[in-house]
Amino acid sequence: MRTQILWIALLRVVSPAHAWQPPASGADWPMYNGDYASTRYSPLDEITPKNVTGLHQVCSYPLPENTTFESSLVAVGGTLYFTTSESTYAIDANTCALRWRARHEMEGAGGTVRGVAIAGNRVFRGFRDGFVIAYDAAKGDAVWTTRLTDADGSNSTIAASPSVWDGMVFVGTSGAERACACVVAALDAASGRVLWKFQLVPTGSAPGAESWPKGVRVGGGSVWTSITVDPQAGALYVPTGNPSPDFSGEYRPGANLYTGSIVVLDARSGALRTWYQLVPHDTHDWDVAATPSLITTKLGRHRAMAPGKDGYLHAIDIGAGKVAWKTPVTTIENIDVPVSTGGTHFCPGPTGGVLWNGPAYSSKTNLVYVNSVDWCATLKLDSKLPTFKPGENFLGSANAFGEHDARKAGWVTAVDADTGAVRWRYEASTPMVAGLLATATGLLFTGDLAGDVMAFDAGSGKLLHRIMTRQPAGGGVISYQAGGKQRIAVATGMENRILATHGQPVVLVFGF
To answer: Is the pLDDT of residue 11 over 50?
Structure first.
């Protein structure tokens, strides 16, 4: 009976959360998704549907390095902060002049790290080699350094941007493709001391370990972006990625907790409160990669809005402890047919659906906005079960992550937060992976891989303005105030081998 309950994925009851509202002024964009609840909403109102066509570039900061550049942007006190694999940058938020750059020397290859968290006069970030470092926000000097992952080759990295609350820094590790022992950890913001760790793939006698077979290498549950915080409930909402091996379901029968889930932890102790497994026993590499938004809908429902690589926006009813509805936000085809050695075509493919940037929500429209990738693939299982080898990919497929279709597109979708009905859609000629930004004046900003920054009417979906940048956008899109003026900043120029984008990383700032 217990196994059946795990298979259907569903959910344990936790006391209703109280939706966190962003700061009233909106002068800063102080964290990865703008606020603790990850709504990506700005209350600033200088830029409106009537004057948005007058936006122009105020300044830019071309990065002096080639990098993936999928970083979020954080704006605090007139400074913009962002990351690359080895460097942390602080630039003037009004002029784009460099204030400081700190570099962490790493052994081995780098990769994406998606941003910083800020509290007081400290900037916190992780690195692919497993270190978390706190910097002085004004000078860029390192204050403390903690290695979160083991130095013996645990196959774990840090790609996520931390979250910080109540004197604690929260961050998750990643590396499911190498069977990571992925965790969520809390560090003391003052000293860097590790306060607790939660294993996202339980072993031994830990609750949930029975959802994995015994005697095999288990792993997964990567945290790719950031963590949502409910300060009133003292809870963390953690999105987790696929199990490993990625595609060989025969190797790991069971629900494979706590992968493909939104895991709710007690922020102070790390204790498990509940979980919502959205993709049980994943065999398609359908991570829940994007941070969920905690909202209170127009009808007063407390919900966590969680999009995934499975191509759905999942509305989790927090009070009821269940998924209220799920709405497709990209092409969904052939998803119930088992992956086979002869090859199975399905949509979204392993690089489809919603990737690392999550939803935006506006209480004025009661709409949840989601960017997605429309890209199908044909995957072939290996004819034999995979064998784990440290440091190597552990997939279980005969053609890596599949043969992707030639057609590669994307969507911007606006979904009613109460009913799940699609109110409008915009079909893009490229995958949509950049951040989204909803504003108090009824605008929705984002960027595409063709090099355009776009402004939509948030209520109708009408494209109001397009700014050509000639750089693919895969990072943060934010709003803040500098010099008394509202600004829109975009991290663009993304290099991404899988999506086949090439750019020169640059931060662009727009205003009047």
So the answer is: no
